[in-house]
Amino acid sequence: MTDRHPVTVVGLGAMGREIARVLLEAGHPTTVWNRTRSRADDLVARGATRADTVGQAVAGSPLVLVCVLDYAATRELLEPVAAELAGRTVVQLTTGTPRQARELAAWAAEHGIAYVDSGMMATPPMVGRPGSAFLYSGDEAAFSRYRETLELLGTARWFGADAGLASLYDLALLSGMYTMFAGFLHGAAMVGTAGVSAAEFAADAGDWLRAMTGSLPHAARFVDTGDYTTDVQSVEFNKSALDVIVQASRDQGVAADLVAPIQELLARQLAEGHGKEAFDRIIESIRPRPA
Ligand code: FVH
């Protein structure tokens, strides 16, 4: 017996299975559905209720968590059961763009469905463990109603009523992650030409990158004030450093595809006459210009 409310999880891939497991272990009566039926077997053995159809799954709970590959799959699954979803809350955990989130939120509103969008800042083993964070935006009343449940998956962070905000923030953080890993791989390719293993390089790269993240607030100040005045780390100085990195990479037989775009952005700032200003000014070459 439990006083926890029922929850439905649609989509039992690597993430959905972990999410359902955490909810089940916390005592939520959990209904599960997955396109490939056998992926639910383990959860059913642990006490989850298997739904034979998506309609049956959503009818089982006031809170429906969707965690599938993409928004196209989500819409394919949810649109035929809009009537059953009316009056319930859908939390879309699937990764997508802010526009997709806003469009799905508009569809949900038309059908009387409370809609919360989410960005999952966690990998499957992190779900329900320290370090896991889930970002949310959309229907604030629905989020508040189920916040305690959502906190089981990871720290629940609220971003506002615009359903696209959680996704925007999620993708912004992922951009930082991808470029960091890509930078590490470029460095590993460079030292690899001298016989250094990636494992050996990882230890040094980790120390260096950790030290560098301390400078993020400093970079943010340039961006937020729009004042890039500096007497260190100028565009000119960094353009020369990137020229050396690109040349050294090519000399070692390493393609410069990952670092050359940074060199190019610096070259643009230099050409526009900003050589004495801070490196961080390259953001001006990529962000939308004021109308
Ligand atoms: N795995 C990760 O590390 C990251 C963490 C951050 C967020 N991403 C996003 O989370 C979404 C789900 O990712 P996942 O890791 O659970 O993905 P898979 O293990 O590949 O499972 C995909 C599930 O989607 C089902 N599915 C796919 N297409 C359809 C469809 N047309 N109709 C119904 N279901 C569909 C698939 O079903 P099946 O193949 O088992 O039958 C899985 O349940 C995702 O947006 C990541 O970008 C993950």
UniProtKB/TrEMBL annotation:
What is an example of a Pfam family matching this protein?
NAD_binding_2
Which InterPro entries does the entry mention?
6PGD_dom2, 6PGDH_NADP-bd, HIBADH-related, HIBADH-related_NP60_sf, NAD(P)-bd_dom_sf, RedAm-like_C
**Statement: the UniProt record of this protein carries the keyword Oxidoreductase:** yes
SUPFAM superfamilies found in the cross-reference section: NAD(P)-binding Rossmann-fold domains
Q: Which residues form the 6-phosphogluconate dehydrogenase NADP-binding domain?
A: 7-155
Question: Key word Oxidoreductase present in the record?
Answer: yes
Span-the-membrane segments of this chain are none
Task: Recall the GO molecular function terms of this protein's record.
Answer: NADP binding; oxidoreductase activity
List UniProt keywords, sorted A-Z: Oxidoreductase
What family is this protein classified in? Belongs to the HIBADH-related family.
- Protein name according to UniProt: NAD(P)-dependent oxidoreductase
> Which lineage ranks, top first, belong to the organism behind this chain?
Bacteria, Bacillati, Actinomycetota, Actinomycetes, Jiangellales
